[in-house]
# Entry
Amino acid sequence: MTLARIKAEARKAAFATRKAAFAAGQGRAAELLADFLAAHRGKALSSYMPMRTEIDPLRAMAAHDGPVGVPVIIGPGQPLRFREWSPGCAMVAGEFGALIPAEGAWIDPDVLIVPLLAFDRRGYRLGYGGGFYDRTLEGLRARRPRLAVGFAFALQEVPEVPTEPTDQRLDAILTEAGPVPIRHV
# Structure
């Protein structure tokens, strides 16, 4: 079986698991994320507008003391850019239906809250398959260190995410049950 097929099968299973986790509720997820971000006051943050069954970071984004941006897909094969967001700002539908600010400054994030379908304790994540976050993290990290934080339901943990050389590791993972220790191998 090819790696592409393995990842496709893993995504299918991960969507079902995340849907079940979402139905069980968010728990203290936003509060734990806000507490985690308190150590990064004043730093530029990127997060995301939750879609479908993604865990919701909005309350933590609104509480962050510093600029906050959300991802904007510029085009296929391109890294993401991050447009400044604040509660109540005008939003429009972007690629894949994700909401993005209608206007605003571009920000260069120090801390990135990354959505995902599945994660493992090596710090790898299974995304949606477009490679946007991997490309973005690689480019940003080439310029200076960045903190990439996976935000997910605890049930989204898998024993091992299928990986390839272009996959970027997360620096931290946070769930509604608390931080997940990452094994550095």
Summary: The longest strand covers residues 68-72. The first helix runs from residue 3 to 24. The chain has a mean pLDDT of 93. The chain has four helices and twelve strands.
